Amino acid sequence: MLKLIYFKMRALAEAPQLLLNYSGIEYEYLMSWEHFDDVWQNVKPKIPFQQLPMMEAEDGTQICQSIAILQFIESRSGLSITDPIKSAEAMAILQSAQELFAPLNPTVNFATGDDFKAKRDSMRDGLKNRFADLARCLEKYEGKYFIDDTPRAAEFACFHHFDLSKYLDPTILNSFPRLIQFVNDIESIKAVSSYLENRPKLMDVGIEPKLIIDGRAQPTGVVKT
Ligand SMILES: N[C@@H](CCC(=O)N[C@@H](CS)C(=O)NCC(=O)O)C(=O)O
Predict the structure, then answer these.
(1) pLDDT tens for residues 139-194?
(2) Closest atom of ligand 1 to CA, residue 98
(3) What residues are in contact with ligand 1 under a 6 Å CB criterion?
(4) Pocket test for ligand 1, best of 5, 7, 12 (most atoms within 8 A of CB)
(5) Distance CA 159, CA 157 (A)
(6) Which of 12, 77, 130, 171 is the most exposed place for a label (fewest CB within 10 A)?
(7) Kind and range of the H or E run holding 212
(8) How many other C-beta atoms lie within 10 A of the C-beta of residue 223?
């Protein structure tokens, strides 16, 4: 079975998991310390690009870099776009979504108090600027998503960042009705909504962020708790 290895964070493993669930591909999610049976500091220098997420294929191949992981899942599930132009457009959207990773994801997962507020306020305009670009991209083709009616890596990466941005400001998407529609369309996919309901809940963002894992509120991070 495929293995997805990451930490206690709601960040770069989300789009891969949304895509895996949408595609009905079975996988095992493992924390770094469960998979490697060692602390992160010792694991880091031994894996291909010294960061997670990493996907381990059935033959033991270690795939790092979340965009490569997403592309691999797309290929495995027969979702790859064959038209070279549309495939490049989808990749541009995926990379543009990925550029939202920092500072949004580290801030939501880790920042607290005044530091959280300062980071939230300084990133707001940049986020909205990129959200406007993505809303315009959605208008280019007919269909629910960026290219057609099928959600793929680019859609799930965008969804993750839109979803996370609500933890900064629950009203942040209000000026983008097309994005609200997009989020609703993604959330109405049964396999996706079931993943979203069952994933670890993220709580106390901006105060003392935690994920509820195995019924226990655990601090976000790279350390076993
Ligand atoms: N470009 C990489 C970035 C991966 C990344 O930033 N991983 C962070 C967690 S979100 C990490 O491994 N942090 C621990 C470290 O760098 O030691 C990707 O897209 O997968």
Answers:
(1) 999 999 999 999 999 999 999 999 999 999 999 999 999 999 999 999 999 999 99
(2) 19
(3) 9, 11-12, 44, 51-53, 65-66, 222
(4) 12
(5) 5
(6) 171
(7) strand 210-213
(8) 15
Dihedral over alpha carbons 119, 123, 125, 128 (to 10 degrees): -130
Q: What is the phi/psi pair of residue 145, to 5°?
A: -115, -165
State how far Cα 35 lies from the chain centre: 21
Residue 209 Cα to ligand 1 middle (Å): 18
- Parallel, antiparallel or unpaired: strands 54-56 and 2-6: antiparallel
**The two structure tokens encoding residue 4:** 């997805």
Structure tokens that stand for 153 in this block? 């890596």
CATH of the domain at 109: 1.20.1050.130
Relative to the CA of 12, which ligand 1 atom is closest?
10
Q: Of the residues 52, 67, 98, 109, which should be mutated to test ligand 1's pocket, given the most ligand atoms within 8 Å of the CB?
A: 52
How far does residue 133's CA lie from ligand 1's centre (Å)? Answer: 25
Whole-number Cα distances in Å, 116 to 9, 50, 161, 162, 209:
16, 27, 17, 18, 11
* pTM reported for the whole predicted model: 0.98
Q: Which domain holds residue 190?
A: 1-225
pLDDT 10s digits, 100-120: 999 999 999 999 999 999 999
How many independent structural domains does the chain possess?
1
Pocket-testing residue among 51, 98, 100, 211, ligand 1, by greatest number of atoms within 8 A of Cβ: 51
Tokens of 27: 């996988």
